[in-house]
Amino acid sequence: MIDHTCIQYAYDEKNNRVSVFDVPYGKNARCFCGVCREPLGAKNKGKTRETVLRPNQKSAHFYHLKESNCSGETIIHILAKEVFLETKKLLFGIERRNQRNELLDFEENLVEFDSVVLEKKIKYEGIYIQPDAIAIARGKRLLVEFAYSHEVGYEKEERIIEAELNCIEIHLKVNWIDWNEYKTEEQLKKRITTFLHEECGMHQHWIFNQKYKGRPIKIIDTSKLEMELAKIENELASLEIKKRTAICEVLGLKHREYLTRILRFENRFDFLDDKHFFLKNGKVFIKDETIEELMAFKGVFGEAWDESIL
């Protein structure tokens, strides 16, 4: 029976990935751990992929021959790295909250990286840090960790933070996915691809982010937005006043109020819109062809602009 919570895959002497069901029993497995590279034994006696386990019976699995703190690597973890290496894509999530820390919405963005390398060591002040993957996009480096059976340890996390390295941890173990229902590597790989490209935005933890210093959260200042909208409305209102001032100057009117009453009385200036004006040094001017039409109108009706009309 396949149990993805156990170490059921390792590497042989030629660095090929092998299943615990395909190697000799016990210390003669001649396999190595994909994490620490230490030799492994196989506890697989009498068990096959089709074996139905009794209650509390453990599935076949690899174990470290020497005492070790290494917890090994599950196939979920292995395939997540392979999918990322092959596709170079990862979904990122960012929360949008107001100043009262109330969630407004959740943005997600699928990022495609220029390059991805696996298990490459980074040296910082004489200490090596080895993430699951290092991804490069537009010249910026991101460390990526995949967590299934265990998360990044405290010491490693502290080194990443101290070095101020952008690093994100993707949590593969979520309660709504039963990974054990996928029996083949092909099925698992397809499901992991969907998860990394479409679903993992809410299942990630930033160990360090140079911009946000934690989980990316955009604080939306709603009061600031309202002020910006009011400013725009005031600017538009001011622009309309400047337009009417320009028309008054052309027609020789002393007050904008006169123009408003003429517009209502004659309904002559309906043709005026933005294309008849232009801005220069913050002042509104009327285009020449529009001035000609206004002056023609003034020649006909100008003498009628008396107190009886206004």
Distance between the termini: 95 Å
Structural class: alpha+beta
Strand order of the largest sheet: 8-11-12-13-14
Helix content: 25-40%
Compute the average pLDDT: 82
How much of the polypeptide forms β-strand, as a percent range? 25-35%
| Global outline | rod-shaped
Main beta sheet = 5 strands, mixed
Low-confidence stretches: none
Cα radius of gyration in angstroms: 35 Å
With helices defined by DSSP (H or I, 4 residues minimum), what is the helix count? Answer: 6
Tally of strands: 17
What is the string of SSEs from the N terminus onward? EEEEEHEEEEEEEHEHEEHHEEH
Report on the architecture of this protein.
With 310 residues, the chain is of the alpha+beta class. It contains 6 helices and 17 strands. It has helices at 75-87, 154-163, 185-199, 222-251, 256-266, 288-301, and strands at residues 9-11, 17-19, 26-32, 39-43, 61-64, 89-98, 103-112, 115-118, 122-124, 127-129, 133-137, 140-147, 167-171, 204-208, 217-220, 277-280, 283-286. The strands form 6 sheets. The chain has a 5-stranded mixed sheet with strand order 8-11-12-13-14. A 3-stranded antiparallel sheet has the order 3-4-5, with no helix packed on it. A 3-stranded mixed sheet has the order 7-6-15. The N and C termini lie far apart (95 Å).
